[in-house]
């Protein structure tokens, strides 16, 4: 910005500022100038951070570096870094007050009710049915406990030692509801079964003669029962915050769950408790349903108030139609996050045949994005899914 | 002999997701119940005067005015377990923490006038940092660490250059140190030894972050730990305890006393000294005229000097980065 020619000192010093200061004083104008360069200069429209409008920041992931976790991951998206650790603890069914009631009533009748609601489609696939039950179990017993912490000194706005901020609370809940709705974790992985041995009441005074006769009875086994559940405490620490915490947090949760290993556990009758084996070869990994990837976007408007004016400024309406007055920016950083009001968050997954499935779509804060745009953003998100898949597979 | 873990108190915290109301129990491993020691105890492979390698990097968090990340290299037992996993129970752990400095910034309007820089320190363990799950709210040991850290740093910062302003220093511990080997029952000499290693790491990392934030200091403060340990399997009182620098509590049978210092080499000054254990009753080896606590302090200062070399290298890198922009 500073003048370079030799005659410069003769001219009274102009009011020019270095770019970094201008960016702080006039953030909106600064970003706008980058996105809509004067036509004469022939420069491409580019963001202040040098990215294309729909370009994501470089992402890296690293798994399993924390010692005291069952699974852990660090995900860095640009300058936003999230550390996620999964800790598994046991929930004994004996401790659940409503367990015996819930098991007999809800498991059977509830399911039947639900099927009835769906119409006479009782001959549905078992798979679907199981999914439904999975979700109910995980949700009712709250077996997944995600918590996000922003009070790690990650940004100046969040006080350490204070209760979780509104942002932290809302992201925690978003992650929880997404874990439930995407049914990422299978309830079957979390169950600890017990097969009671068949010890008849008269076993002790059993005669040798009777032995043959009783054999037939011992064939029929007692039903298996669930003795305990694994509860996964999913704690996410945002170590560094530079915009878009949700994508980073969610990516770290998925990566950590992929890394999670649960020890082999069984009900020990003598001790009346659940024991685990510390043998790595006996431990099992979680089998996740799919690989949901979140991508967030924000909308930057040249003139945010345009829509609210009683008398539209000439050309403003026209501009809007051309889509010139606004830009959709993928993966906003901290600077852009503060300038945008409208946000879109899309979570997609891809099936084996390459079909994109939308798991969540959220749009808040404005009215400029229409269905056409959303369709385009879903395409962008599914491209992002491919990128993230590669990153996850490497870690 | 069977000791069941107690059900953790479920906090009635409406701002967080709390999990099952019935409470959960940490897993109990069968091998742990059968015999006292299922696997071999972690053994110290380093010389008594060798420190663990320290990884220290500054400026990783751009939104903070100063930041650093510190990591201890895993001890040999942990490194073995990582490369060749057999058991799900880690033999020991290695400190990992991140530190940020925000400020100097004006004090809030409500605060009283202060002619000096006001330093606020927060130390918080991540819930998954230790063998036992930590709560979300700071407990007494975390507050204790915060206070120790504050005294260690306050002596080094030239506070009168920033009247009416304050800095917030926050440390998040991602992985803490063990207090003893996991299979050992707490015994007579048991105390939270791991905390001392954590504090030493906090001091070194905080010093790097403060330098990264360009806050004037008298010198770089570094932390060091030394411990008097008796590793004899038989409780033979004749053998004198040995002095170990940077002792990993998981690698020793019994730690008699330990000491952590915050030390400024340029002025040969100690800003913080924390001694734990009954050092007055311990007799050192024959020929060593020092008292036990003198030996401990000397050892801790030596360890701090070692950490200082890493610290000054990290700060030098920071400065080079500032001078030569990307």
From TrEMBL, chain A:
InterPro entries: ExoRNase_PH_dom1 (IPR001247), ExoRNase_PH_dom2_sf (IPR036345), Exosome_comp_Rrp42_subfam (IPR050590), PNPase/RNase_PH_dom_sf (IPR027408), Ribosomal_Su5_D2-typ_SF (IPR020568). It comes from the Eukaryota. Signal peptide: none annotated. GO terms for molecular function: mRNA 3'-UTR AU-rich region binding. Residues 211-220 have a biased composition (Basic and acidic residues). Keywords: Cytoplasm, Exosome, Nucleus, RNA-binding, rRNA processing. Gene3D superfamilies: GHMP Kinase, N-terminal domain (3.30.230.70). It is found in: Cytoplasm; Nucleus, Nucleolus. Transmembrane segments: none annotated. Residues 55-263 form the Exoribonuclease phosphorolytic domain. GO terms for biological process: exonucleolytic trimming to generate mature 3'-end of 5.8S rRNA from tricistronic rRNA transcript (SSU-rRNA, 5.8S rRNA, LSU-rRNA); nuclear mRNA surveillance; nuclear polyadenylation-dependent rRNA catabolic process; rRNA catabolic process; TRAMP-dependent tRNA surveillance pathway; U1 snRNA 3'-end processing; U4 snRNA 3'-end processing; U5 snRNA 3'-end processing. Residues 102-133, 197-220 are annotated as: Disordered. Residues 118-133, 201-210 have a biased composition (Acidic residues). One of its GO terms (cellular component) is cytoplasmic exosome (RNase complex). Coiled coil: none annotated. Belongs to the RNase PH family. This is Ribosomal RNA-processing protein 43.
Automatic annotation (TrEMBL), chain B:
InterPro entries: ExoRNase_PH_dom1 (IPR001247), ExoRNase_PH_dom2_sf (IPR036345), PNPase/RNase_PH_dom_sf (IPR027408), Ribosomal_Su5_D2-typ_SF (IPR020568), RNase_PH (IPR050080). GO terms for biological process: nuclear mRNA surveillance; poly(A)-dependent snoRNA 3'-end processing; rRNA catabolic process; rRNA processing; U4 snRNA 3'-end processing. Residues 51-215 form the Exoribonuclease phosphorolytic domain. GO terms for cellular component: cytoplasmic exosome (RNase complex); nuclear exosome (RNase complex); nucleolus. Belongs to the RNase PH family. Residues 1-48 are annotated as: Disordered. It is found in: Cytoplasm; Nucleus. This is Exoribonuclease phosphorolytic domain-containing protein. The keyword rRNA processing applies. One of its GO terms (molecular function) is RNA binding. Pfam families: RNase_PH.
């Amino acid at each position: 910005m500073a003048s370079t020619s030799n005659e410069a000192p003769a001219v009274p010093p102009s009011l020019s500022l270095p770019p970094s200061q201008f960016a702080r004083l006039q953030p909106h104008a600064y970003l706008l100038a980058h996105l809509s360069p004067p036509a004469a200069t022939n420069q491409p429209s580019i963001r202040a951070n040098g990215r294309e409008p729909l370009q994501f920041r470089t992402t890296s992931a690293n798994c399993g570096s924390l010692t005291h976790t069952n699974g852990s991951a660090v995900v860095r998206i640009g300058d936003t870094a999230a550390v996620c650790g999964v800790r598994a603890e046991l929930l004994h069914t004996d401790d659940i007050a409503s367990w015996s009631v819930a098991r007999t009533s809800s498991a059977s009748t509830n399911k039947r009710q639900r099927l009835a609601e769906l119409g006479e489609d009782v001959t549905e696939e078992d798979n679907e049915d199981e999914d439904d039950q999975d979700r109910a179990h995980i949700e009712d017993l709250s077996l997944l406990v995600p918590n996000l912490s922003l009070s790690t000194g990650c940004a100046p706005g969040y006080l350490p030692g204070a209760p979780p901020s509104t942002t932290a609370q809302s992201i925690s809940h978003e992650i929880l509801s997404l874990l439930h709705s995407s049914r990422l974790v299978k309830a079957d992985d979390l169950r600890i079964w017990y097969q009671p041995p068949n010890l008849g009441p008269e076993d002790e005074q059993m005669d040798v003669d009777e032995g043959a006769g009783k054999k037939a009875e011992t064939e029929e086994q007692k039903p298996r029962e669930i003795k305990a559940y694994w509860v996964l405490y999913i704690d996410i620490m945002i170590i560094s915050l530079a915009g878009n915490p949700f994508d980073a947090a969610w990516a770290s949760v998925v990566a950590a769950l992929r890394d999670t290993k649960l020890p082999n556990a069984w009900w020990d009758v003598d001790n009346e408790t659940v024991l685990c084996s510390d043998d790595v070869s006996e431990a099992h990994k979680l089998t996740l349903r799919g690989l949901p990837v979140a991508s967030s976007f924000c909308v930057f408007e040249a003139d945010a108030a345009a829509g609210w004016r009683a008398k539209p400024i000439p050309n403003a309406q026209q501009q809007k139609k051309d889509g010139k007055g606004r830009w959709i920016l993928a993966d906003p950083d901290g600077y852009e996050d503060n300038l945008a009001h409208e946000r879109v968050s899309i979570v997609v997954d891809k099936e084996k045949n390459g079909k994109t499935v939308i798991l969540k779509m959220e749009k808040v804060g404005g009215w400029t994005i229409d269905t056409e745009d959303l369709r385009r953003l879903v395409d962008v998100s599914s491209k992002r899914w491919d990128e993230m898949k590669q990153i996850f597979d490497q870690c | 002999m069977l000791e069941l873990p107690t059900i953790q108190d479920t906090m009635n915290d409406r701002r967080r997701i709390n999990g099952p109301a019935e409470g959960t129990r940490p897993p109990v491993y069968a091998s742990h119940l059968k015999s006292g020691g299922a696997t071999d105890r972690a053994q110290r492979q380093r010389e008594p005067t060798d420190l663990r390698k320290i990884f220290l990097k500054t400026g990783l968090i751009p939104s903070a005015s100063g930041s650093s990340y510190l990591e201890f290299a895993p001890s040999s037992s942990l490194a073995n377990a990582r490369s060749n996993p057999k058991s799900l129970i880690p033999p020991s752990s290695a400190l990992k923490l991140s530190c940020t400095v925000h400020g100097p910034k004006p004090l809030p309007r409500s605060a009283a006038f202060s002619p000096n820089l006001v330093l606020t320190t927060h130390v918080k363990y991540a819930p998954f940092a230790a063998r036992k799950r930590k709560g979300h709210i700071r407990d007494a040991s975390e507050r204790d660490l915060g206070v120790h850290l504050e005294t260690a740093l306050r002596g080094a910062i030239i506070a009168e250059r920033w009247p009416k302003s304050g800095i917030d220093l926050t440390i998040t511990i991602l992985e803490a140190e063990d207090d003893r080997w996991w299979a050992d029952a707490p015994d007579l000499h048991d105390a939270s030894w791991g905390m001392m290693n954590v504090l030493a790491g906090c001091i070194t990392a905080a010093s790097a972050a403060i330098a990264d934030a360009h806050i004037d200091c008298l010198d770089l403060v570094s932390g060091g730990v030394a411990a008097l340990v008796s590793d004899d399997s038989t409780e033979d009182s004749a053998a004198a305890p040995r002095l170990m620098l940077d002792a990993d509590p998981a690698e020793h049978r019994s730690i008699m006393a330990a000491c952590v210092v915050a030390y400024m080499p340029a002025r040969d000054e100690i800003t913080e000294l924390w001694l734990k254990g009954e050092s007055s009753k311990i007799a050192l080896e024959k020929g060593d005229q020092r008292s036990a606590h003198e030996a401990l302090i000397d050892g801790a200062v030596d360890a701090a000097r070692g950490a200082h070399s890493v610290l000054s290298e990290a700060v030098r890198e920071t400065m080079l980065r500032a001078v030569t922009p990307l």
